[in-house]
């Protein structure tokens, strides 16, 4: 999931982010300050991208000359440059990325060691240049993979990653530390999907897990600096299936969780908002499509993307409205989020 979830503080980020779930062979998009979409040519293919409010972006993708070679790319606001990844990254597959408001781009990858262990690499990049690499030996198995799936950071010394097995890794400015997160459900079949942090004592995880045969439940957990707690929502007591797919915010009192589920008897889109006191279900949620991504830049500026296809919606501080769709060129190669 994108990007260091104090990730978006400018409209300029919007469309570059909108293709985070895409592998674009030629085009990326950016939103001008007037709010219209414009095309930004992109060389090669990009798998992970971290944009910043000043219009720059750092990305990992395949070389324009050799698609089998991973490279590090930097967009200075007008053009892309490309350089080889450092040798320490050999054998790693990068699967998640995030950034901080002060300009740090973080990329996480994994490399198999054995059936029970993997290596996790956390690479920090500043203005397209590798700044730091940490490699962590981490337990894993076929049933509980430990690969990081999302990264969020609020500053250089407060960066968090959540793994596919539901654990977290936190960076305090000097080293990474691993933390077990308590079970949400007795079954403990969890699918965490996103993490968001505003400070070392304010971290959120959203996802879903199995509560019985054929029934999944969305969950939200919060770290207050001392303990992890499950925070209830209007879907907590719902007997039907629901999924939380993403989380993002612009401040401790402006956080969104999105997904898809059965409200009473019919499937519906899910958009939940945290105002600092409680999670509230928006009465004007878009429609019944699965929402796959949310990007919150300010209390009156948030975007959601469907899990598949077009259908972007915009939050102006009071209502959701459908944004104008754009057409991806034939050269673009896309995958679902």
Q: Can you describe what's shown?
A:
- By secondary structure, the chain is mainly beta.
- It has one helix at 14-18; strands spanning 22-23, 27-31, 37-41, 45-51, 57-62, 70-75, 80-84, 93-99, 104-112, 117-126, 129-139, 148-155, 158-163, 168-171, 176-179, 190-199, 202-212, 215-223, 228-230, 242-251, 254-262, 267-274, 279-281, 291-298, 301-306, 313-315, 320-322, 333-334.
- Strands 4-5-6-7 form a four-stranded antiparallel beta sheet, with no helix packed on it. Strands 8-9-10-11 form a four-stranded antiparallel beta sheet, with no helix packed on it.
- A hairpin with a 5-residue loop joins strand 4 (45-51) and strand 5.
- The longest helix is centred in the N-terminal third of the chain and has 5 residues, at 14-18.
- Mean pLDDT is 82; it is low at 1-34.
Rg, alpha carbons: 19 Å
Tell me the fraction of residues in β-strands, as a range: over 45%
Class by SSE composition: mainly beta
Low-confidence stretches: 1-34
Order of helices and strands: HEEEEEEEEEEEEEEEEEEEEEEEEEEEE
Helix content estimate: under 10%
**Alpha carbon gap, first and last residue:** 9 Å
Work out the helix count. Answer: 1
Strand arrangement in the largest pleated sheet:
4-5-6-7
Described by the principal axes of the CA atoms, the overall outline is globular
What is the average of the pLDDT values? Answer: 82
Using DSSP, what is the number of strands? 28
The description of the largest β-sheet is: 4 strands, antiparallel
């Amino acid at each position: 999931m994108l990007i260091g979830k104090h990730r978006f503080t400018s409209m300029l980020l919007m469309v570059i982010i909108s293709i985070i779930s895409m592998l674009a062979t030629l085009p990326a998009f950016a939103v001008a300050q007037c709010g219209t979409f414009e095309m930004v040519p992109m060389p090669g293919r990009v798998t992970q991208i971290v944009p910043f409010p000043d219009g720059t972006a750092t990305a990992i993708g395949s070389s324009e000359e050799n698609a089998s070679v991973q490279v590090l790319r930097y967009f200075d606001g007008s053009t892309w440059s490309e350089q080889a990844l450092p040798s320490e990254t050999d054998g790693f597959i990068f699967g998640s990325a995030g950034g901080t408001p002060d300009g740090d781009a973080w990329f996480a990858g994994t490399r198999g060691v054995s059936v029970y262990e993997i290596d996790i690499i956390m690479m920090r990049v500043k203005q397209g240049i590798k700044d730091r690499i940490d490699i962590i030996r981490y337990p894993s198995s076929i049933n509980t993979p430990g690969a990081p799936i999302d990264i969020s950071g609020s500053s250089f010394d407060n960066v968090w990653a959540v793994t596919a097995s539901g654990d977290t890794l936190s960076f305090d400015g000097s080293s990474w530390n691993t933390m077990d997160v308590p079970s949400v459900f007795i079954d403990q079949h969890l699918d965490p999907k996103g993490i968001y942090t505003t400070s070392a004592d304010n971290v959120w995880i959203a996802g879903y897990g199995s509560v019985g045969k054929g029934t999944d439940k969305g969950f939200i957990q919060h770290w207050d600096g001392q303990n992890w707690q499950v925070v209830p929502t209007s879907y907590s007591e719902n007997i039907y299936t629901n999924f939380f797919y993403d989380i993002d915010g612009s401040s401790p009192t402006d956080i969104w969780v999105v997904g898809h589920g059965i409200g009473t008897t019919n499937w519906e889109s899910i958009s939940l908002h945290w105002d600092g006191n409680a999670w509230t279900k928006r009465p004007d949620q878009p429609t019944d499509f699965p929402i796959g991504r949310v990007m919150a830049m300010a209390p009156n500026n948030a975007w959601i993307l469907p899990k598949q296809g077009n259908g972007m919606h915009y939050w102006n501080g009071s209502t959701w409205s459908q944004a104008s769709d754009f057409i991806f060129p034939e050269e673009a190669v896309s995958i679902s989020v």
